[in-house]
Design brief:
Number of domains: 2
CATH topology of the largest domain: Rossmann fold
Shape: globular
Number of helices: 14
Distance between the termini: 43 Å
Largest sheet: 6 strands, parallel
Helix content: 25-40%
CATH superfamily of the largest domain: Glycogen Phosphorylase B
CATH architecture of the largest domain: 3-Layer(aba) Sandwich
Strand order of the largest sheet: 3-2-1-4-5-6
Order of helices and strands: EHHEHEHHEHEHEHEHEHEHEHEHEH
């Protein structure tokens, strides 16, 4: 009989949206396994997002993406040894590979098991998701999942079946938006502010510049201030150009159009939590908005919202103030505006959320 609290290691390395989709698992583990202690291996750029999250005891950063660029360099070998030493510090009762790729399977295999511990992984791919066979070969237990399943539910079902509990239907708080390590976050004005998320890692997911300007004018006419975030020099240039175009195209209003500085993910999620809502393309920041339970409209040029967007009505975790809009070649401004109005009407409160 185990004489200590269950120790679980989650392996979900990247990308930002995938990491955010996995966060409800932490809530499930603590609800389904009293006293559980949870660690998480993640790519270093995403570690700040997890650091303030309640329910995660230790975040173990790795840099596989960077190490693969120069695998024979002395610095890579040194950093790899340090990472594996940290990974092996703690023996685990369960190591759960939630990524389903060769790299995550390797990390899970390197982790140290407690006596009787096991490694768990997916037995097969699910529709629209990446999967590589070594994730099954290197695990002790391979778990069957529904073929067509939302990214959030896939992770939740895998952990629930691995550890023998039933996941709750709704997770209202995944621990994001807490106090960051540094408090240098943007100040949030007294007016309700909507964050516009235009940046994405893929050009074919972008929404036209003129559409953003037109939507912004409608939001400002409805009394909302605006904020723009960025994660690269190119996105900063777009944010600045949008701010200038929005200001020039609307009548003088005492409503801000603010371009936020580039922020670590803990500070960014904290600042987002103080906004009254988000409109954004399919990107990591939009998925953070969903996890923060903010009113949100997510824009899709591809029919993949069923897998990664806000859950649709009737699906587990669906909220009427979070909606996706899909159209090809791209959603119209009118469709996005109507979805935003529906979110506003459905949300219990549209007032700004003050910073802690």
């Amino acid at each position: 009989m185990r004489g200590h609290p269950l120790r679980v290691l989650l392996v979900k390395l990247s990308s930002l949206g995938d990491v955010v989709h996995t966060l409800p698992v932490v809530h499930d583990l603590h609800a389904g396994v009293p006293g559980v202690r949870v660690d998480w291996v993640v790519e270093k750029p995403f570690a700040p997002l997890l650091a303030p999250c309640t329910g995660i005891e230790r975040v173990i950063p790795c840099e596989l993406r960077r190490w693969r660029q120069s695998p024979l360099a002395a610095s890579t070998r040194r950093e790899w040894r340090a990472f594996t030493a940290e990974l092996k510090q703690q023996p685990y009762d369960a190591v759960i590979d939630l990524q389903g790729l060769s790299k995550s399977a390797l990390i899970a295999r390197l982790a140290r098991l407690a006596p009787g511990g096991q490694r768990f992984a997916m037995a097969h791919p699910t529709d629209g998701s990446s999967y590589e066979a070594p994730t099954r070969w290197l695990a002790d237990v391979a778990i069957e999942l529904p073929r067509r399943v939302h990214a959030v539910q896939r992770a939740r079902l895998l952990c629930a079946q691995a550890l023998g509990y039933v996941a709750a239907e709704e997770v209202s708080d995944v621990g994001l938006g807490g106090e960051p390590a540094s408090s240098s976050v943007p100040s949030v004005p007294s007016v309700p502010t909507v964050l516009l998320v235009h940046g994405t890692s893929r050009r074919d997911k972008e929404w036209p510049f003129a559409h953003w300007v037109q939507l912004a004018a409608q939001l400002r006419s409805a009394g909302f201030g605006l904020a723009l975030a960025h994660g690269s020099a190119a996105e900063l240039a777009t944010s600045e150009a949008l701010a200038q175009a929005i200001t020039a195209s609307t009548p003088p209003l005492n409503l801000p159009v603010a371009v936020w500085p580039r922020l670590p993910l803990d500070q960014l999620s904290h600042a987002m939590a103080a906004c009254c809502g988000v409109v954004g393309v399919d990107s990591g920041l939009s998925h953070i908005a969903v996890a923060l339970n903010l009113p949100h409209v997510q824009l899709y040029n591809f029919d993949t919202a069923w897998r990664t967007g806000p859950p649709a009505e009737g699906e587990p975790g669906a909220r009427p103030w979070q909606r996706s809009v899909f159209a090809q070649p791209t959603p119209s401004v009118e469709a996005v505006w109507q979805a935003w109005q529906a979110c506003v009407q459905s949300c219990p409160s549209m007032s700004p959320r003050p910073l802690a």
